[in-house]
Each structure stands twice: as structure tokens, then as C-alpha cells.
Write a structure and sequence with these properties.
Distance between the termini: 14 Å
Number of strands: 0
Shape: globular
Number of helices: 15
Helix content: 55-70%
Order of helices and strands: HHHHHHHHHHHHHHH
Number of domains: 1
Structural class: mainly alpha
Largest sheet: none
Length: 378
């Protein structure tokens, strides 16, 4: 299991071997994915429990974990591939690596959800299978078709498409310019409220808040890229002292912002998210050590499946328990998170990783990869 990972998968090909591993960024993915699961569990929780108002708000804002995913994605991809991705052949290798990482579980999620989405039109199915469902500004509702959480994978697919063209140009910029651009992209994320743009937003009063177009979420991804490049330019890169206060402030500020009624200004949470990502990668801390433990690395590895399979697993559990006596049927919903985690760990170990390796071997045998197999053996 590689400790170098993106939000929704790990770029663990040979190109990553020249980088120091960042295991804490694997572990934190589990909490981000499970936060989204809690968000989707809110209707059942609210029905059975009278939660304090701050806790209700915290649950409602669970969809904002996607902003952390996008920051992480830009960060770790830039950190991993800086100086390694110029030229058409290396761009192709990058796209193949991304496909091998994300598509097997993505396709599995569609298979598992098919039973509950059999009436979906063919055109919508084609859009979802090709991962472009969130790219149509005239059909925002299409983004959540078939498997609801997959809209963010469609956004990620757009990021992967443009990343090999953006990174070489950003790498040529001075550190001063990068810091300025970081401020620009984080400010844009806050004042344009980009973290609340997407299908997770419960505020249906604004059509703008429901649009999940990739271009709208791009500032978060670009901010993550710049943070990754800034880490690579830091001297010394991994010998800095611990700064537990910064990590504690980032976590505490994130929790507070996610728990108070500040409306669209909850987009401010992207700021402590950015600090948290950088601090977890830059230096050891109490949280980084915890997130780097073997159990957290396993759960972090399975987090992509946890995020993407939550809808079909929840649907199948609900169906299975509905066939049971009423006394047992009530256990379905509270058991769903545990069933989801156990199932996704199994998927990660016995399907996701073997599928990724099989696709990597298949791509390595294609004629386009033969000449550069040593540097692109992913």
C-alpha cells in the first residue's frame, strides 16, 4: 500500500519513488470520506435523535469534505509529478495511471447501483460511464445521475485532463508569484463560495449553489497544486520542527466553521483545510503520527470505495433489511456505516488494488509505453 495518495486514489507508479512518502494524507482521506457518509446519514439521524444545533449544522456541512478532497488532489499530484510530466508520452502515462486508479471502483459503483437506476435514459448513462456528467452547464441535474457521489469524480476527471498542461507552466513561476496566486485562488474559493457549489449543497434557493461544473471548483484544485509546489521548494523539506499548534488550530477552526450558522460563508473552511493539508505533509505532528498508523493507512486506502460506494451499499442494505421482520429491519440504517467500511476494505484489498495492478500491467505492454517503460512503470 502506497502512502503517497491523492484524494480519490494514489499516484503510486514509479514516478512517485523520487518523493518522500506522505502517509498522513492517506489517513486523513478516511475522515473526509466518512464525513460525507455522515452527511448522507443525516435524515435518519435527525429522525431518531434530537441533536444539538451545532451538531446538526456540522452534519449538514458534510458535503464540504469534497473541498478537502480537491485541495488534496491538487497538492499530491503537483508534489508527485513536478518535473516528471512534460511531453506527450508522459502525459499519456499520467492519464493511464489515473484511469487505472479510479475507474475500476467507479465502474463497480455503477454496477452495484444499476438495480436502483434502471429507468435512467441511455444518454445519461453514456455521460456517467464516460465521466462527463458534471460538465454540462445546461443539465446540472445530470451530475448526480446513477450514483449520486460520482459527480465529484467527473469534476476530478476534468482536473486530471488539464493537470499535465497546467503543472509545467506553474512550475516555472517564482515562489513569490506562487504565493500571490495561492492567495488569489483561496480568496476566489472563499468569496465565490466555490466549496459550496455542487450537488451536496442543501440550499436549493439558489441555482448557482447547485451547479457542480468543474471550472467552478478549479480554484480549490489549483490552490492545492501551489501548496504542493511550495512544499517541494521548502528548505529543508522534511526536517522542520513540529508545530502542533498550527495543526490544532487548523482542525479546531475547521470544526468551528462547520458547526456555526454562517450561511454561504462556510466557504471560509477552505482556509484551515489548506493549512491542514500543508502542515500534515510538511512536518511531523500528533495528528500526522496518528493518521500514519497502519489501521489509518488501511482505512485511508479504502476511503475512495467508502466515498463512491456509499449510495449503492446503503440502498442494498436498506433492501436487505426491509425483507426482515420489523424488529430486525430497524437495525439496517445504524449498521450501514459499519457494513460500508467492512465491505470497502474488502473491495480495496481484493478488487481495487488487483484491478489497478492488472491495468498497469496491461498499459505497460501497449506499444506507446514500450520505449519509456523504465520511467513510467506505473
Amino acid at each position: 500500500m502506497s502512502a503517497v495518495s491523492t484524494t480519490l486514489g494514489s499516484p503510486d507508479d514509479a514516478l512517485t519513488k523520487h518523493r518522500h512518502a506522505l502517509p498522513a494524507l492517506t489517513g486523513i482521506r478516511f475522515f473526509a470520506a466518512f464525513y460525507v457518509v455522515l452527511f448522507h446519514s443525516l435524515p435518519w439521524v435527525s429522525k431518531h435523535y434530537d441533536l444539538p444545533k451545532p451538531m446538526q449544522i456540522f452534519f449538514v456541512n458534510g458535503y464540504l469534505a469534497v473541498a478537502l478532497f480537491f485541495l488534496l488532489s491538487g497538492f499530491i499530484l503537483a508534489y508527485t509529478y513536478d518535473g516528471q510530466i512534460e511531453g506527450s508520452s508522459k502525459r499519456l502515462h499520467f492519464w493511464q495511471a489515473r484511469f487505472a486508479r479510479i475507474y475500476p471502483v467507479y465502474f463497480l459503483s455503477l454496477i452495484l447501483a444499476y438495480f436502483f437506476q434502471r429507468s435512467l435514459p441511455l444518454t445519461s448513462r453514456v455521460a456517467v460511464v464516460t465521466m462527463v456528467q458534471a460538465w454540462n452547464p445546461f443539465r446540472a441535474g445530470l451530475a448526480g445521475a446513477w450514483n449520486y457521489p460520482a459527480w465529484s469524480l467527473s469534476v476530478e476527471a476534468f482536473f486530471y485532463l488539464v493537470f499535465p498542461f497546467l503543472l509545467p507552466r506553474m512550475s516555472q513561476l517564482s515562489s513569490r508569484v506562487l504565493v500571490i496566486l495561492l492567495g488569489v485562488f483561496l480568496t476566489a474559493s472563499v468569496f465565490m463560495h466555490t466549496p459550496i457549489q455542487g450537488l451536496g449543497n442543501q440550499d436549493r434557493s439558489s441555482d448557482w449553489a447547485r451547479v457542480p461544473l468543474p471550472i467552478i471548483r478549479l480554484p480549490e484544485f489549483l490552490a492545492g497544486m501551489i501548496l504542493g509546489l511550495c512544499l517541494l521548494r521548502r528548505k529543508p523539506q522534511f526536517n522542520g520542527g513540529t508545530h502542533p499548534v498550527r495543526v490544532a488550530l487548523a482542525v479546531g477552526t475547521s470544526v468551528v466553521l462547520l458547526s456555526v450558522p454562517i450561511g454561504p460563508w462556510v466557504s471560509l473552511v477552505v482556509l484551515p483545510f489548506a493549512v491542514l493539508v500543508y502542515e500534515l505533509a510538511a512536518r511531523p505532528s500528533w495528528l500526522a503520527k496518528f493518521l500514519s498508523t497502519k489501521p489509518m493507512l488501511l482505512l485511508g486506502g479504502a476511503s475512495y470505495s467508502v466515498y463512491l460506494l456509499q449510495y449503492p451499499v446503503r440502498s442494498w442494505v436498506r433492501l436487505a433489511f426491509s425483507q426482515r421482520p420489523s424488529r430486525l429491519a430497524s437495525f439496517g440504517a445504524p449498521l450501514t456505516p459499519l457494513i460500508l467500511i467492512l465491505f470497502c476494505v474488502t473491495v480495496y484489498l481484493f478488487f481495487e488494488e488487483p484491478s489497478r495492478r492488472a491495468l498497469r500491467r496491461w498499459f505497460s505492454r501497449t506499444p506507446s509505453n514500450t520505449s519509456s517503460r523504465e520511467t513510467a512503470d506505473f
